[in-house]
Design a protein that fits this description.
Structural class: alpha/beta
CATH architecture: 3-Layer(aba) Sandwich
Keywords: Hydrolase, Lipoprotein, Signal
Strand order of the largest sheet: 1-2-6-5
Helix content: 40-55%
Protein name: Substrate import-associated zinc metallohydrolase lipoprotein
Shape: globular
Strand content: 5-15%
GO molecular function: hydrolase activity
Number of helices: 11
Order of helices and strands: HHEHHEEEEEHHHHHHH
CATH topology: Collagenase (Catalytic Domain)
Radius of gyration: 27 Å
CATH class: Alpha Beta
InterPro entries: LP_HExxH_w_TonB (IPR030890)
Number of strands: 6
Length: 307
């Protein structure tokens, strides 16, 4: 019993001593948790000039856990691929709207503020892959950058179609499109079963949807019509309508008329003019200088940018 009391008293003394020592120490105002500092390289400085200063867009190519989905095994994008993608997105997407509107303000005001690159695919548990995602109009993530072949891109390359698709979402969320559009195919939208119900693009087109994904919802239908129209030649578009047959064609054309008028009346954008610019810039894209970070060598000589 006596031994237990001695241990108890000894512990109490130590505790009081510790409290006294702590109370005499002054807390430092400097945090012990300090953010890592990455020294800027030539590409960072190029991005600052061409994305941050010009468009108020942050282009992120270094791998960051906070920006990545923890649901996938992902790898960083390669440095050279990131440079190529930055130049391609600017040339084939951002500068398209500069030409259409006459300034960079349209992109500054409405385009997502973060573009994030990932080197690998994002594989789902069912074996399918994710090529790109968009988050609340604020960020677009592009996957599989390590398989990008800059010299082989064209208007139908998925990254650029995806960019126009996601940007169209932002525009029609800012200014809603007419409810007449939804009524045309209303009962036929199938939500997440779009790829199960429609096994081929031809099937979807014959049922009045320009793509299988367009059958998911009226919002996806609307922006798919925009993104596919501007990334296809007139001949390719006509071929899709022929595939749709008389019934499917009539439905697609009725919806596209609303889409065309909406873009013209709400945003002063002529989709025919936009398609012309997109296709021309896509043809120019393989000739971009993907090695130099000198602003003077970036644009092809025949580019129609109004910067």
């Amino acid at each position: 019993m006596k031994k237990n009391l001695i241990y108890l008293l000894f512990s109490a003394v130590l505790f009081c001593t510790a409290l006294t020592a702590c109370s005499e120490d002054e807390l430092s105002a400097t945090s012990v948790v300090r953010p890592s500092i990455t020294e800027q390289n030539d590409f960072d400085r190029w991005l600052d000039r061409n994305y941050v200063q010009t468009y108020n867009i942050k282009f992120k190519y270094r791998f960051e856990d906070i920006e990545s989905s923890m649901g996938y095994y992902l790898t960083p994008a390669k440095y050279e691929q990131s440079i190529a993608m930055a130049k391609l997105i600017r040339h084939m997407c951002l500068e398209v709207y500069d030409e259409l509107t006459g300034s960079t303000e349209f992109i500054r005001n409405y385009f997502p503020k973060i573009l994030y690159l990932v080197g690998s695919y994002a594989y789902k548990t069912n074996g399918s892959v994710v090529l790109g995602t968009a988050e609340a109009g604020a960020k677009i993530t592009f996957y599989n950058l390590d398989n990008l072949v800059p010299k082989e891109v064209n208007a139908k390359t998925s990254y650029f179609k995806t960019t126009h698709h996601e940007f169209a979402h932002i525009l029609n969320q800012t200014k809603p499109y007419p409810t007449d559009f939804t009524e045309i195919s209303g009962p036929k939208y199938v939500q997440d079963q779009c790829f199960e119900i429609y096994k081929t693009e031809d099937q979807a087109q014959q049922d009045g949807f320009i793509s299988r994904y367009a059958s998911k919802s009226d919002g996806e239908d609307f922006v798919e019509l925009i993104s596919l129209y501007v990334n296809r030649t007139a001949e390719e578009w006509e071929s899709m309508l022929k595939t749709a047959g008389s019934t499917g064609r009539a439905t697609i054309e009725a919806k596209f008329e609303i889409v065309y008028n909406y873009m013209s009346n709400s945003w002063d954008i002529d989709l025919n003019k936009m398609r012309e610019i997109v296709l021309r810039r896509a043809a120019e894209a393989p000739d971009l200088d993907f090695d130099s970070l000198d602003d003077e060598t970036d644009a092809p000589e025949n580019s129609g940018t109004n910067e």
